């Protein structure tokens, strides 16, 4: 991919971000749009022609799948992003992680991503933002806490009922400095939340200066309150004005940076109207939160899919499942397909391989939508969303509204008329209340 210098000069965004899965990428898109930034999320790094067609833009996102990849695959995935960052030189490059930071040295390594991307940015240090309060994710003295579902109890991440038992990347360490050290980011310095108050003995700026003078190259910022993000944003933006900066973390990075950016538009809250036709949902997440949402989806025809059989190489089960979904949709029925584990199967190296299952979900969606395009759909599950979207013939997304924190509605951009303008919700397993799929049908 080559981007010419004149295109670079005209279309350099203030903020460039890469989402390590598609659900998180859409949350950051919504965050930027709601902050008044002219924003677009692309499904791949842009060509010269695509970049020029976007026009003036404040925030450009790239939706990816790094969260599910091994280190060698991550290198292939992120090399074009690093090249794009070198050429565009945004003020901030945001590597968007899941708000629970679930990752491992051999799968979705955040440390690996930092090593791949940091050479593309002039700043000699990397910021790591540790929480996202609007999703009930908090970082205090370097330790991560997260709610169990919308409005649920808050747990230290290594005691979280779901994330501590994640089938691929279980979170066994709450201290993000120790967690990321296992991925090669050793010697992380900390800016504690207590330094953000005006009467703090040691301000955040003074602590940052001391860390930098000590040679610290990775700095973790606590986030205990929503108001902390304004302080963090001011510090990051000031630093980025001197040398463009790599910042790592959930959508709170964009929340923080956007709060410090000048000349933002005022944006009215975007509601979501009722669906104009049958709605399709693919729930590939096996989380308890998604299971409760499926159980509460009274407006839907529920089709339960055997997860192991869906991944079979001959594709016969996948094709028959697609036909069943097509029949329901053609009859005008809202249809929800959810994967269920076979007896004795797991999604962690047993009968079911998580990556293969996500890819099979993408093939299923492609088969269904070729037969019966819909005006609104949803995909639940980070990996399922990422691979499902890559199976569709589309090139981008814009923000259209928000059903719940972490659950935005986006509008598909495609050169295929049947897909262009389709509304789509991509949500992680932990996002949204029990009535989320009902709200998808009836509006909010």
TrEMBL record:
The keyword Membrane does not apply. The keyword Lyase does not apply. Residues 280-437 form the Four-carbon acid sugar kinase nucleotide binding domain. GO terms for molecular function: ATP binding; kinase activity. Belongs to the four-carbon acid sugar kinase family. Pfam families: NBD_C, SBD_N. Keywords: ATP-binding, Carbohydrate metabolism, Kinase, Lipoprotein, Nucleotide-binding, Transferase. This is Lipoprotein. Residues 15-256 form the Four-carbon acid sugar kinase N-terminal domain. It comes from Pandoraea aquatica.
């Amino acid at each position: 991919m080559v981007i010419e210098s004149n295109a670079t000069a005209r279309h350099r965004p203030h903020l460039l971000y890469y989402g390590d899965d598609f659900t998180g990428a859409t949350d950051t898109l919504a965050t930027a749009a709601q902050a008044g930034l002219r924003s677009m999320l692309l499904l791949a790094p842009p060509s010269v022609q695509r970049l020029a067609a976007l026009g003036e833009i404040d925030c450009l996102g790239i939706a990816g799948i790094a969260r599910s990849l091994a280190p060698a695959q991550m290198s292939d995935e992120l090399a074009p992003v690093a090249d794009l960052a070198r050429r565009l030189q945004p003020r901030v490059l945001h590597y968007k992680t899941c708000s629970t930071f679930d990752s491992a040295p051999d799968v979705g390594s955040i440390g690996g991503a930092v090593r791949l991307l940091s050479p593309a940015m002039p700043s000699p240090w990397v910021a790591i933002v540790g929480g996202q309060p609007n999703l009930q994710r908090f970082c205090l003295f370097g330790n991560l806490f997260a709610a169990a579902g919308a409005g649920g109890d808050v747990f230290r991440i290594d005691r979280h009922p779901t994330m501590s038992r994640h089938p691929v990347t279980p979170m066994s360490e709450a201290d993000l400095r120790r967690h990321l050290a296992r991925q090669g980011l050793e010697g992380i310095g900390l800016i504690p939340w207590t330094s953000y108050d005006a009467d703090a003995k040691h301000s955040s700026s003074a602590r940052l200066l001391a860390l930098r003078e000590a040679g610290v190259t990775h700095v973790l910022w606590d986030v205990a309150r929503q108001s902390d993000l304004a302080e963090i944003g001011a510090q990051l933006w000031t630093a980025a004005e001197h040398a463009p900066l790599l910042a790592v973390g959930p959508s709170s990075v964009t929340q923080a940076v956007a709060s410090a950016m000048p000349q933002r538009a005022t944006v009215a809250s975007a509601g979501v109207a009722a669906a104009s036709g049958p709605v399709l949902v693919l729930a590939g997440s096996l989380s308890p939160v998604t299971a409760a949402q499926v159980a509460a989806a009274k407006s839907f025809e529920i089709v339960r899919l055997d997860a192991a059989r869906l991944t079979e190489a001959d594709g016969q089960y996948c094709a028959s499942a697609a036909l069943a979904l097509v029949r329901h949709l053609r009859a005008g029925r809202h249809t929800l397909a959810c994967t269920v584990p076979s007896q004795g199967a797991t999604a962690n190296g047993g009968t079911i391989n998580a990556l293969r299952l996500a890819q099979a979900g993408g093939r299923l969606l492609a088969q269904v939508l070729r037969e019966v395009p819909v005006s609104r759909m949803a995909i639940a599950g980070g990996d399922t969303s990422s691979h499902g979207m890559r199976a569709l013939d589309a090139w981008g997304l814009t923000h259209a509204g928000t059903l719940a924190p972490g659950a935005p509605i986006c509008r598909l951009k495609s050169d295929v008329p049947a897909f262009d303008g389709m509304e789509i919700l991509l949500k992680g397993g932990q996002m949204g209340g029990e009535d989320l799929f009902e709200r998808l049908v009836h509006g909010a």
